[in-house]
Amino acid sequence: MPHPLHVPRVNNNDDVVTVVELKVAPGAFVRRGQVVGAVETDKAVLDVEADRDGYVLALVGQLAQPAAVGSVLLWLGDTADEAVPQSTGAPASAATGSRGKPTAGARARLKALGLRAEDVPAAGERLTEADIDAWLASQGRPAADASAPSAAAAAPERTPDVAGTFEALAPDELGMLHTVLWHRDHAAAGYIELEYDPTPWEAHAKRHAERHRLLLPPLLPLMAWRLVELAVQQPRLNAAIVGERRYRYAGVNVGFTVQAGQTLYLTVVRDAQRLDAQRFVDAMGDLQRRALARKLVPAEMTGATIAFTSMARWNVSRHVPILPPHTGLIVAHSAPRGSGRAVLGATYDHRLLSGFDVVQVLQALAQPPQPLAGDPA
Amino acid sequence: MTLDRDAVKAAIRAKVLALASALGVHDATIDDDDIIPASGLLDSAAVLELVVWYEQTYDLPLQQDEINIDNLGSINAMAGFLLARKGGSVPA
Prior knowledge:
The structure holds two protein chains of two kinds. By secondary structure, chain A is an alpha+beta fold. Chain A is built from nine helices and 16 strands. A six-stranded mixed sheet of chain A has the order 9-16-15-14-12-13, sandwiched between helices. By secondary structure, chain B is mostly helical. Helices cover 51% and strands 0% of the residues of chain B. Chain B has helices at 5-22, 44-57, 69-72, 75-85. The radius of gyration of chain B is 12 Å and the shape is globular. The interface between A and B is medium-sized, with 18 and 22 residues.
């Protein structure tokens, strides 16, 4: 993937510098920390170092020409033949202007994000929070997400020394990659599990199936529905941490994993709190069926605010799931065949929930809801 | 497409047994009126797979509320529902 090396800031007052040296040419391989050029103002000269290993794909900055701080000086790639993005090849800051010092609000955002002011081009006289949001969006990071990436996320990745070839990832593989990276970079994940007696739930699901003449056993959808009820009672379960604030979701969007061949989908029932149990079972069944038929639309695979998964089909005894992006809780169900026992586990964001919170959720989830008056015995 | 009840039933039975075999249940048998989810041959995901196969094979898009025991609970029920929806007569 092409990686831009930006024009650095030399001092606080100069938003435009002059490129006075370029030591590399397209096709050259450079090491992280290697000096690839130099820029100057009327006050100082600054060496520009590569921030990662890679091949020089293209030079954007031109010798003896001015360049805006934060614009692209050159592009690096993992291989020498990667295409350079055309839309961002031009000096971004030259087009938009990178002139001002950050406002107070922008300074706070920069600090929370672990960014420097010179990393973000300003559209006007001062660098504003809107500039930061726009820049985050251009980098593929959520504007509302004020979490700084971890040091591990920023570390350059080296191509193995063993012979091999690169392959592009399929869309679902990319989706999984992004999910795992969000979990790694933005969550403080913990895991707790609880063994429980599956008999009451199985009896509850059987009664429900008979009452509604269901073809598909509703045990797992009903357990996911119970999680919805708990999330309504305890809104902290249906939230995410953004920076140093809790982002409480207005609706409960339940993610539920569906394995369709080699592809794992996280199907999402939106605003599940508006449904009753059977309508939820129907909604989930419809999504599962269309996942197998590869007929889901993006809105049905995004926006989860809480999640449920089961690997009972594969006789798995323990399953530690990855948190979907911007969620704080995913519950994992397992029921090893022939063991007479079942397990509920939960991966949670420890910034949002304590272990005690999660134990209480699992204890509540381990029991089916009490029958309502008038329900058949 | 002309649908023959016996051919439809044979195809459904073959699919049920193939799904059961994929779950490690080999040499299984199932009668035309056996309730498929209660047979123990298929888990819930396999029943779902059977329904999706049924929709696609016979070009029969289903509404969620049509997916119930009465319409699709057995081989006989599935064949009958298909022929009724497609306008074919169902021999006794």
